[in-house]
Amino acid sequence: MAPPANLKRSCSSFESRNSGSPIYNRVHRLIITRDPGKPIYKASSPVALINGLIRAIKGHESSLNAGILYRDVSIGNIMLTENEDDGFLIDYDLAIKTSNDRASGAPGKIGTKVFMAIGALRGEPHSFIHDLESFFWVLFWICIHYDGRDEKGEVKRRIVPEYEKWNYAGTRELADLKGGLLVEEQRFNEAVTGFTPYCESMIPCVQELRKYIFSNGRRWLGENKELYSQIKAVFDKAREDPGW
Question: Which of 23-27, 75-79, 165-169 is predicted least confidently?
Answer without folding.
Answer: 23-27
